Amino acid sequence: MTGTNGKSTTCKLISHLLKKNNFKVSLGGNIGTPILDLEIKKNSFVVIEASSFQLAYSQFICPDYSFLLNITTDHLDWHGNIVNYMNSKLKIFTSQQKHQFAFTNSKLKKIFKKRNFQSQLTVPNNTSYKKIKKKIKNHYLKSSINDENMSFVYALSKLLKIKQKNFIKAVGSFVGLPHRYEIFYKKKILFL
After folding, report:
1. What is the maximum alpha-carbon separation in the chain?
2. Contact between 2 and 68 (Cβ < 8 Å)
3. What residue ranges do the domains of the chain occupy?
4. Residues 13, 20: Cα–Cα separation, whole Å
5. Which of 58, 67, 165, 178 has minimal Cβ neighbours within 10 Å of its Cβ?
6. 29: left (phi over 0), alpha (psi -120 to 50) or beta
7. Range ranked top by mean pLDDT from 20-24, 39-43, 72-76, 142-146
8. DSSP letters along the chain, please?
9. Closest CA to 5 of 78, 107, 82, 73
10. What percent of the chain has pLDDT over 90?
11. Selection from 30-34, 108-112, 139-143 with the highest mean pLDDT
């Protein structure tokens, strides 16, 4: 999992969804446990949050399911320019083969195709997720701020053949990461 914004929350959502649907899962990388310290079990998923810095030096990353959520101008002081930054993020797709899956948004679809990456491209559809959003009983996910990330999680759930009712139930119990999206002040305004 990579992208400028939303990596941690989306990793945590995927890990939560998979655990709630009885998949074996490890979560690590830029979010918590370093990759080399993960205890990986046979026939399990490893959800890894990868930063642009980690990917810039990566030569062998080849995930079965890769996610590039978005790219906005960030870390240009280290990467030098937006092209270098984007190239580091796109490395998540470089070694993938035809039997593997790549997820990215519609804005990055043209770049993916132009680079002739080999994996099967999925462009999550926000409309598809929004059709079931109202069924999810989770205050944290009510805001539109998480819709794009949730569309990625929902697209993966369909690919893994997780039933819609199981998806809704699982994400309903998701607890967001601290200091990401939270109400810190409410004020009642009286009009005279």
Report:
1. 66
2. yes
3. 7-172
4. 11
5. 178
6. left
7. 20-24
8. -B-SSSHHHHHHHHHHHHHHTT--EEEEESSSS-GGG--PPTT-EEEEE--HHHHHH-SS---SEEEE----S-SHHHHSSHHHHHHHHHHHHHT--TTSEEEE-TTTHHHHHHTT--SEEE---HHHHHHHHTT---GGGTSGGGHHHHHHHHHHHHHTT--HHHHHHHHHT--PPTTTS-----------
9. 73
10. 60
11. 108-112
Position 72, amino acid: T
Answer whether residue 183 shows pLDDT above 70.
Answer: no
Q: Report whether CATH 3.40.50.620 matches the domain 7-172.
A: no
The answer to whether residues 107 and 75 touch, using CB atoms and an 8 Å cutoff, is no
Q: Which residue type is seen at 37? A: D
Q: What pLDDT is attached to residue 1?
A: 94
**Which phi and psi angles does 132 have, rounded to 5°?**
-105, -5
